[in-house]
Input
Amino acid sequence: MKRNRNIITVVVCAVLAAMLLAGLAGCGAAPAGETPAEPTITVSASASVTLVPDKATFTFAVTTQEQTPELAQNKNSEAVKNVMDVLTGRGVEEKSIRTTSYNMYPQYDWSDNEQKIVGYVVTTSMSVQEQDIEDVGKLLAACVDAGANRVDSVVFLCSGYDEAYRQALAKAVDEARAKAEALAAAAGKKLGDAVTVTEGWQDTSAKAGRSVDVPDAVNAAADEAVPILQPGETEIQANVTVTYRMG
Output
């Protein structure tokens, strides 16, 4: 029996020794004939194209005040309808006119240290989407003349955004190659073909334009253009990451 146990012990030791040798062999050099990893270089680059906005979206509000909620709502609804009639009468499509918010709240009188409701205020905020920039001033003035008593913002838009973004992408790829060539030369290497090209984050706020404050136009007349800040230029930027072979 003791002899059998000795035989088993010898066999187990031999197996463990074989497993250890196999593990050590796996930690050594790559098998003969295996191709080493190809050297590459990865760079990121960005480029931009500028456009002059040709469209604009503007927002305004109609605020009314009356002694009861019903009267305040009715007065507000009538004023909003007048504004919409003026806009559609000037060629704005109904689908381009949106109600962005509606709220009503009471007004309080705190005299004599007593809280007392003295009336109600109703505000309807609206936006008019994507109109020609040259028409926006007169449209805003017409809205004010029809009952709008607050102008909130103008957002400038570029209808040629998509084409400009593609141009920016192409410029960014060219810039990436120029950077990669400079790095490769500094390392004493030659730049090869692109292996991968990845588009970076796209700034969609440029596509939507930028918002600017517009002075209140309460006293504007319907046939006079409300002063609009110059739209200037919108910068449309593209970002890429490119990996090249390097030899």
About this structure: The beta strands are 40-51, 55-66, 97-109, 116-132, 150-157, 191-199, 211-213, 234-246. Residues 161-186 form the longest helix (26 residues).
